[in-house]
Amino acid sequence: MVKNIFLVVLVILVLGLAGYLGFQQLPSLFVQDKKTLDASGLLVATGPIDELKLLEYVEKTVFPFDFIDPEANLAALSRVIQADRSGRLPQDILTPREWESFEAYNLARSTGFDPGTPGSPFLVLTLVYEYGYPLSDPVLGPDPVLDPIIPALQVRPPSLLRVRIEDLRRADYPYPDVRISPESWQRISGFIIAQKETGVGLDTVRLQAQEQAFQFFRSILRAAYPESNPEITFR
Amino acid sequence: MGFLGIFLLLSSCNPGNVTQTANLRAQIENLLQLHSYEYRYREILYLGDQRTLLGFIPTRDRQFLFRVDFLVSAGVDLTRGYTLSSGPGNKMTLVLPSPEILSVDAQEETLYQYVNQTFGGDLRILEIGDLLELASQSISQDSIERGILHQAKQEAESLVRSFFLSLGIDEVVLEWAPHG
User: Fold this and answer.
1) With contacts defined as CB-CB under 8 Å, which chain A residues touch B44?
2) Cα angle, residue B170 at apex, residues B165 and B173 outer, rounded to 5°
3) Which of residues 63-102 of A touch B (CB under 8 A)?
4) Interatomic CA distance for residues A108 and A213, integer angstroms
5) Cβ contacts of A58 on chain B, cutoff 8 Å
6) Which residue, among A11, A44, A46, would best test binding to B if mutated, counting the most B CBs under 10 Å from its CB?
7) Which of A142, A184, B37, B60 could form a disulfide with B151 if both were Cys (CB 3.0 to 4.6 A apart)?
8) Three-state secondary-structure class, residue A195
9) Which pLDDT band, with edges at 50, 70 and 90, does A74 fall under?
């Protein structure tokens, strides 16, 4: 009798251990899974947005590697900060590129993306830079020349409206899935957006957005004044 | 003249053009979209994942609860095509594609974590993606039912008329074409 009880307990323990280790081949008779995904929300604000979007620049970026200068000696940077007695903030002691590397490295380590460990996880993200006009501010200059032959407009150059991270979709993400908490995701995405909004020098993109704006306004004037030769200048 | 909207059209615009830059990981896409109305949603997202052995031995109990704001933007996508014709007199006729949902986007900076219970495994980035996708679908439908497209149309009309008025055209006939 004692022997039988011992065997039953042993079987339960073995099966429990196997289940805990994620042994997927166990018959469903023994393992029950329940997965729930739910999204519920409230409408909290509505209003006009009034934007003309002219262009999107889309790029892929890899966290943390794209944000850490491979030439940077992070230990040395840390020592420089610690040795400084000038009272300056760390970001004022280092160069912008050094500070970005230092900040990215610390963020990566604290969120489980330590680039120094073998096989360290990474995120491949799609960033979208949106260019255009917020229409809450005047786009045209104060004195448009509405001449039917040579109409002329002064136009504000389009600007970067925002940088956003495209929402991840399982079907579009062929890279390894990674562990991450919602809080870590908030910190990483906030860091990336802040870096990209302040650090980009996309002159080529700005020029193409301006060209798109030029064609747009010229087209409108040509439609309004079919016999005209419009002049569009950026102020 | 202070407030000037914009937009419109023209066959000479090439809004669907895509330019591959020197960086193979990037590309430029020309657009022409008038975003005229926006809704903000606050979503509570939950993922629960439990596994039991023999019906009563828990081997996994993951629970994640967090909130994030979404922005839904509606307006006119001029890349669908439009026509603008003049006359008679100082009058223009403009045919625009009907308003539609142009974007639904999670605002990561608003993300706030309530519960992060990881017994049996951490949350994965693709599971966050699954939750965001689930929320996006319901938000998009809800915003349409609440009338975002109608509001986007009214706002777009106001912008278009203001713009043409600034060009000395005080009479614009606006027509809306259904999506083909």
Assistant:
1) 39-41
2) 105
3) none
4) 39
5) 26-29
6) A46
7) B37
8) helix
9) confident
pLDDT of residue A126: 95
Which chain B residues are Cβ-neighbours of A12 within 8 angstroms? 54, 57
Question: Given an 8 Å threshold on Cβ–Cβ distance, is B19 in contact with A208?
Answer: yes
Structure tokens given for A199: 């650090």
Tell whether A41 lies on the interface with B, counting CB pairs under 8 A. Answer: yes
pLDDT in tens, A94-136: 888 888 999 999 999 999 999 888 888 999 999 999 999 998 8
3 state SS of B88: coil
Residue of chain A minimizing CA distance to B167: A146
Contact B26 A183 (CB under 8 A): no
- Report the predicted TM-score, pTM, of the whole model to 2 decimal places: 0.82
Instruction: With a cut of 50, list the residues of chain B below it in pLDDT.
Output: 1-24
Question: What is the rounded distance in angstroms from the CA atom of residue A226 to the CA atom of residue A222?
Answer: 5
Q: Is the pLDDT of residue A29 over 80?
A: no
Q: How far, rounded to the nearest angstrom, does the alpha carbon of residue B166 sit from its chain's CA centroid?
A: 28
Q: Which residue has the tokens 């489980």?
A: A112
The rounded distance, in Å, linking the Cα atoms of B168 and A156 is 20
* Partner residues linked to B119 by β-bridges: B61
- Which residues on B lie below 8 Å from A61 (Cβ)? 25
Tokens standing for residue A16: 């429990």
Beta strands in chain B (DSSP E): 18-20, 26-53, 57-77, 83-86, 91-97, 100-119, 171-177
Asked if the C-beta of A125 comes within 8 angstroms of chain B's C-beta atoms, the answer is no
Cα gap A46→B40, rounded to integer Å: 6
Q: What is the mean pLDDT of chain A?
A: 87
On whether ipTM exceeds 0.95, the answer is: no
Chain centre distance of CA A38: 24
pLDDT, tens digit, 9 for 90 and up, residues A179-205: 999 999 999 999 999 988 775 557 888
* Chain A / chain B CB contacts < 8 angstroms: 286
Question: CA neighbours within 13 Å on the CB side: how many for A218?
Answer: 15
